[in-house]
């Protein structure tokens, strides 16, 4: 691999960073809200699945346990 001059490297980094499209404040807020909503829905879903499995197992074990 060819060695790059430090000044040339910095110029290349600046050129690449200038190509980055940064999100607007509104986009960041909307995506953050969507992440919180999806995390909440996922937590509710898994809580309900856990409750269902627990109830099912308790019912099955109640039949055999006495």
UniProtKB/TrEMBL annotation:
Gene Ontology biological process terms in this record: intracellular protein transmembrane transport; protein secretion; protein targeting; protein transport by the Sec complex
Cellular component annotations (GO), alphabetically ordered: plasma membrane
**Positions of transmembrane segments:** 28-49
Q: Which InterPro entries match?
A: SecE_bac, SecE_sf, Translocase_SecE/Sec61-g
Q: How does it sit in the membrane?
A: Single-pass membrane protein
Q: Kindly indicate whether the keyword Transcription regulation belongs to this entry.
A: no
User: What are the alphabetically sorted keywords of the record?
Assistant: Cell membrane, Membrane, Protein transport, Translocation, Transmembrane, Transmembrane helix, Transport
Give the subcellular location. Answer: Cell membrane; Membrane
GO MF term (any one): protein transmembrane transporter activity
HAMAP family in UniProt: SecE
Q: What does this protein do?
A: Essential subunit of the Sec protein translocation channel SecYEG. Clamps together the 2 halves of SecY. May contact the channel plug during translocation.
Q: Which family does it belong to?
A: Belongs to the SecE/SEC61-gamma family.
Quaternary structure?
Component of the Sec protein translocase complex. Heterotrimer consisting of SecY, SecE and SecG subunits. The heterotrimers can form oligomers, although 1 heterotrimer is thought to be able to translocate proteins. Interacts with the ribosome. Interacts with SecDF, and other proteins may be involved. Interacts with SecA.
Q: What is this protein called?
A: Protein translocase subunit SecE
Q: Which organism is it from?
A: Roseivivax lentus
